[in-house]
Each structure stands twice: as structure tokens, then as C-alpha cells.
Amino acid sequence: MISTGINGLDEMLGGGIPQGSRVLYSMEPGVNGQLFMVSTLCSALASGLSCLVILPHTTVDAFRHDVVAMRAGSIELSSEHITFIDAIDRERIQKSTRSQKMAQKEWKARISKICHEREVEVIFAYFDLIYDDFGMKGGLDIIRPGRDGPEPTLIIEQLNLEGAPLLTRCVQDFTFDVVISINASYLPVPHFDYFTLVHISWSADPVRSVPFIVTEGRIVPYIPRIVVTGPAKSGKSTFVSSAADEGLSVERVGTEGDPTTVAMDFGLVHGMGFEITLYGIPGKPRFDALISQMFRNTMGVILMLDATKPDSLTRAKQQISLIAGRRIPVVIAANKIDLPGRMSEAEIRTALGIKDDIPVFFLSATRRADVRYVLESLVDFITKFPY
After folding, report:
1. Which residues are CB-contacts of 124 (< 8 A; sequence separation ≥ 6)?
2. CB 273, CB 7: distance < 8 Å
3. Does residue 150 contact residue 19 with C-beta atoms inside 8 Å?
4. DSSP for 10-51?
5. Domains in the chain: boundaries
């Protein structure tokens, strides 16, 4: 297995990239995704694998400079394990050949020679100019070394100007084993980047999308904000307190003598490869303006219910209407299952008017295991949400 060098992605792939696989990093225009290819290259070099890096768009010196900047420090790109073909080589091939067919033959001969002499195990190809010169079929043909023995692992980065049709062709026509699409989104938050594991040839798992940030030269999965809301006294503060590793709640005594939140609950949850910030929003109608404001920067919503109080679902339905149309993943957490008289899932769905695409979970907010399960289920739901 070859590590991608990206936190969480190896686990999604079942341990990494099997030797001999064909991998595509497909980048949407404008997305900050160059570190994906570089992270995998650095992992391969750290494992002592012999690598060929094809850089038709730039020189080796410029590439080294960019990699050092991306990785926030120096990295060994002059080791005996790495060989380059760069923009200077491409220019020489163009000048020395009189036709596309001759250029294609020269490219193939040069790559095959390096792969034979250096016993190359992984080929990293920045594919944009190769695609422009020879198309997908012709470009992939020149990269195949055509040698006896195991095929090198092929890892390609390409700027995708064609969208989903290109990804479909790569899976169906060109038999890529792994297709990862790196995209930018403006919903539900003003801007975030995410990667989507579009295809794995050895698994039938559903497509998964994971938001990420780049920090200290690493790709880090990132769930920036989750809002916990719901009718008054449904258990929001208890949920945040049970989930959080550290947090704060601002309360006062209500008219009935019970504590009531007057600002919001705040909690930090560590683990799962990233950190989650939880915001518990008070459930009274006067805080609805705050809910709408919080949704502008929210990645997911947990709507808490008291499963023993059917009359509270009228208020919950009003809150569902505040979420509708915002393209935010939401799950229902039906609390107080340890008390008698709880409603069924069917009763809750009917009262709220929600379909099967919104998950409903039953829990006791006082039990940390229950709360963590709901939170982890929402995170999983976020990774599969069609942004």
C-alpha cells in the first residue's frame, strides 16, 4: 500500500493505494488542492519508493520551490529515489519532432527508458498539457512504461474543465482505480473546499465528500461548526455538555424554576481526525434571528426533540422551516428515550412533515455514548451530502 499522506483519506481507501493502481486527483478550477498530489509524492519518497515525476508545465527548480512553500518547510526532492521530466524536456521533444505521432513516440520512449533504468515504482504525472497535446487515451498510453514485471502505480493530477462527464469517462473508459475530485463550495458556508472520493475499484462504498483545510503543510478534514437547536427544554444544553471535551453554557433560572439558556452553549469536540465546534442555540422564538444568522456558517444541524412531549413538535416544525432551503445537512435527535411515553419515529416524521432523507435518532442526552453516536452519524451524513 502507498499512503496518500492525507489524514483520513487512507482510512477511506482501506489503508492506502494498492501497488499498480491508477489514481486521479481531479481539481476544479480555483480550488486549493495542489497539496494532495504533493502529499502523496512525499509519502512515496519517505517510504523509499522509486518515483518519476512528469512536470510538462514547469521546471524542476520551480517545482521544488513550490513544494517547499506548500509543505511549510524543506523536503528532500533531490534524492536518488526521484527522477523528473519537466517543461524543458517537453520543449526539446516539441522542437525535435515534426508531428504529434512522433512526439508521442518520443515521450513514450523517454518514459519507458527511465522506468526501466530506475525501476520506477510510482509515476506522478501533472497531466494538463499532456491531455492538451494527446488527449486522455493518448496521454495515458505514453505514460505506460511497457516493461516486463509489475506496472508502476500511476498518480495523475488534472484540472477538470469538463466536470462530471470527465470523471465518468475516467472510471468507465479508462479504468481508474481511484478517482478523487477536489472542489470548492459556496454553500452552506460562504466558502469551503472539500474532496470527494468518487470511485474506488475495490469497494462498493457510497460516494463520500469531506470538507478540508490546509494547515502547516497538511490536508486536514474540517467540520467547522455544528448547531444544536430545538424547542425549549428538549435537552440541547445537556447534549452539548455530554458531547464536548470542553465548553461553556450561559444559563439563568427560568420562570418555572428550571435553568434556561440565555445566550448559547459552546463546546469543542476533539477526535475523529478533526475538531468540531458545537453551538447550542436557545429554543424560544425570540432567538430565531440568531438561528438564521448562525446558519450562515454552519456545516450541519442537530434538531433536538423531547420524545415524550408531542406538543413541542409544533415549535420543532417551525425550526425545521428555518433550515429548509439552506442546503444544510440536518438530523433529528429524539431525546429522553429513558422516560415512558416516547413517540415513535413514524409519529415524529408525520408531525414534522419530514421525509426519509432526514435521519432520526433516539437517545438519552445524559449518556455520552448516545450523544457521540448522533454526532458521529451527522459527520458521516455531512461527508455524503450532495453539496
Report:
1. 37, 40, 41, 44, 51, 52, 53, 54, 155, 156, 157
2. yes
3. yes
4. HHHTTSSBPTT-EEEEEE-TT---HHHHHHHHHHHHHTT--E
5. 9-221, 223-383
Q: How far apart are CA 382 and CA 387, in angstroms?
A: 9
Q: Which residue from 238, 262, 239 is spatially nearest to 250, judged by alpha carbons?
A: 262
pLDDT at 261: 43
**Can you name the CATH fold of 223-383?**
Rossmann fold (3.40.50)
Check pLDDT > 60 for residue 254.
Answer: no
Quick one: pLDDT at residue 82? 93
Taking 3-state DSSP, the helix, strand and coil percentages for the chain, each rounded to the nearest 5, stand at 35, 25, 35
Strands, E assignment, 140-256 = 153-159, 178-185, 192-200, 208-215, 218-221, 223-229, 246-248, 251-253
Residue 225's contacts (CB-CB under 8 Å, 6 or more residues apart) are 189, 277, 279, 294, 297, 298, 299
Question: What does the pLDDT look like over 190-245, one tens digit per residue?
Answer: 467 888 899 999 888 767 778 888 888 888 877 768 899 999 899 999 999 998 88
9-221, superfamily in CATH? Answer: P-loop containing nucleotide triphosphate hydrolases (3.40.50.300)
- Which stretches of 42-103 are assigned E, i.e. beta strand? 51-55, 82-86
- The per-residue pLDDT for 188 is 45
Could you tell me the CA-to-CA distances from 311 to 231, 286, 343 in Å, in that order? 10, 19, 11
Quick one: what percent of the chain has pLDDT higher than 70? 87
**Once rounded to an integer, what is the mean pLDDT over residues 177-189?**
77
Residue 255 has pLDDT above 50, yes or no: no
Question: Nearest to residue 374, comparing CAs of 240, 225, 283?
Answer: 240
All cell numbers assigned to 96 = 525535435
pLDDT at 273: 52
Q: Quote the cell numbers at residue 243.
A: 458531547
- Give per-residue burial for 166-205: e unless 16+ CB within 10 Å, then b: bbeebbeeeebbbbbbbbbbeebbeebbbbbbbbbeeeee
pLDDT at position 346 is 95
* Assigned C-alpha cell, 272: 475523529
In the predicted structure, residue 251 carries a pLDDT above the cut 50:
no
Are both 9-221 and 223-383 of the same fold? yes
